[in-house]
Write a structure and sequence with these properties.
373 residues, alpha/beta, 7-stranded mixed β-sheet, elongated
C-alpha cells in the first residue's frame, strides 16, 4: 500500500462544497470538487477518519486507476495493470459490481465478468496460485465506465455511510442521514444553537444537528469493510476512533426540540434519539403545526410532508400556508425548509433569502433558506 493514495467520496448533488469543507478539516490533500463527488489524496489514517467523521459522504472509495476502455480487451488489460495485490490478500474476497453510461461497453454483466477475470489473472501471477477461495475479508471492487473511460475503485466503507446505526426504524418517508447532515450544515448549526424540527418524523434532522453541534463523529458506533483488511493495521482505526472521541464537545450548550402530529413518529424519534446517544439534548412531543410557537434565535429545520411522499398536492400546499403563518422566517427566527414544490414560496407567503438545489432520494428539491430581513 502506498503512503498516500487517491480517494473518492460520492455525495448528494448540492452538498459538494459542504463535503469539501469537511475533508479540508480532516487534512485531505489535492481536493477536487466534481458533480456529486469529491476526489482527494491521503493516507490510511485519513481513510479511517473519513469513514468515521464525514457526515455528508455516501462512502469512501479508493480510486485504483482510470483508463480508456472502448473494447473488452482494453478493459481487461487496463484492470490487469492495477496494483490489486497492494490491497487484496491471497484469501480475500473481491466481488465486482458497477455501472456503464454513454459507452461502447454498455453490458454491465459482461464488464463485471471481464474485470473479475483480469483481477484473478493479476492476483494469480502475484500469489502464484490458480485458485482463490475468497474466504477472507471482502474487498468490493467497483467500476464506473462513463464516456468510454473506466475508473476502478475499492469500497472501504461497506454499508453506506448514511447508515449511522441509530435508525433501524423509520417512518414512511424518512430523510437520508447524509442529506439531513448537509441541511444542518447549511443551517449553520453551532455548539450553542437551539434547533427545532416541527415535522420531526423519525428524528433524523434533530440527531444530525446534535452530532454537528457536539462534534460527534457519525460513524463512531459502527464498523467499516476496511477494518478487516490486512493491509491496514488495526492501530490506524484505534487511533482514528480515539481522536474522534477526544474531539466530542461535551461542554456544548446545544439543545433541540421536535414536534409531530403522529404519535408513532414521536415514538420512533424517541427510540432513535436514545440509540444515537443524544437523548439529554433533544426533547420531542406530539403537537400539530397549527399550535407551533417560535423562540427567538431558534433555528427551524424541517422536511415537511408533500405530495410525492405523504400528502396530496392540495393538502401539502395548505400545509405550506399554515407554516407561513406560524414561522416568522427571518433573521431573528432563521428557517430552513426542504421541498420539491417549485411554488413553495408562493404558498408559504414570502420569498426565501436563498434557494439551493438538492435531491431527496430521486426527487429534485430545493432548500428554502430564510435568514434575512
Amino acid at each position: 500500500m502506498q503512503n498516500t493514495f487517491q480517494m473518492c467520496c460520492p455525495c448528494h448533488f448540492g452538498l459538494e462544497h459542504t463535503l469539501h469543507f469537511e475533508l479540508k478539516k480532516l487534512g485531505a490533500e489535492q481536493i477536487q470538487v466534481q458533480d456529486g463527488r469529491i476526489l482527494f489524496r491521503g493516507n490510511a489514517l485519513l481513510l479511517a477518519k473519513a469513514n468515521l467523521c464525514l457526515s455528508t459522504a455516501e462512502r469512501v472509495l479508493i480510486q485504483l486507476g482510470s483508463f480508456p476502455a472502448y473494447t473488452f480487451e482494453e478493459l481487461f488489460q487496463g484492470m490487469k495493470k492495477l496494483p490489486l495485490e497492494e490491497w487484496i490478500g491471497k484469501d480475500d474476497a473481491f466481488p465486482v459490481k458497477g455501472h456503464a453510461l454513454d459507452s461502447k461497453l454498455h453490458s454491465v454483466p459482461d464488464c463485471q465478468s471481464i474485470l473479475k477475470k483480469a483481477a484473478v489473472e493479476r492476483l494469480r501471477q502475484h500469489y502464484h496460485t490458480s485458485w482463490f477461495a475468497e474466504s477472507g475479508a471482502v474487498h468490493q471492487i467497483q467500476f464506473s465506465i462513463r464516456k468510454n473511460i473506466a475508473t476502478i475503485y475499492l469500497d472501504s466503507s461497506g454499508v453506506g455511510l448514511h447508515k449511522r446505526g441509530y435508525r433501524r426504524n423509520a417512518n414512511a418517508a424518512p430523510i437520508k442521514e447524509t442529506l439531513a447532515a448537509g441541511i444542518v450544515d447549511l443551517a449553520r448549526v453551532k455548539q450553542d444553537s437551539v434547533v427545532c424540527d416541527p415535522f420531526c418524523g423519525s428524528g433524523t434532522l434533530l440527531i444530525e444537528a446534535a452530532f454537528k453541534a457536539m462534534h460527534i463523529a457519525p460513524g463512531l458506533h459502527r464498523h467499516f469493510a476496511a477494518e478487516r483488511w490486512g493491509c491496514i493495521p488495526a492501530t490506524v482505526w484505534a487511533d482514528a476512533r480515539a481522536e474522534a472521541i477526544a474531539a466530542i464537545r461535551r461542554d456544548a450548550t446545544f439543545e433541540a426540540y421536535g414536534f409531530d402530529c403522529d404519535p408513532e413518529a414521536i415514538r420512533l424519534s424517541e427510540e432513535n434519539i436514545r440509540k444515537a446517544g443524544v437523548k439529554a439534548r433533544i426533547q420531542v412531543m406530539q403537537r400539530d403545526i397549527v399550535d407551533f410557537t417560535t423562540v427567538p434565535e431558534q433555528i427551524i429545520v424541517c422536511n415537511p410532508p408533500y405530495g410525492e411522499r405523504l400528502l396530496d398536492i392540495q393538502a401539502a400546499e395548505s400545509l405550506y400556508k399554515i407554516m407561513g403563518s406560524v414561522f416568522p422566517a427571518n433573521k431573528q427566527y432563521p428557517c430552513y425548509i426542504i421541498s420539491p414544490d417549485a411554488n413553495f414560496e408562493t404558498f408559504f407567503g414570502k420569498p426565501a433569502t436563498k434557494r439551493r438545489k438538492l435531491y431527496n432520494g430521486m426527487i429534485p428539491c430545493q432548500l428554502f433558506s430564510y435568514y434575512g430581513e
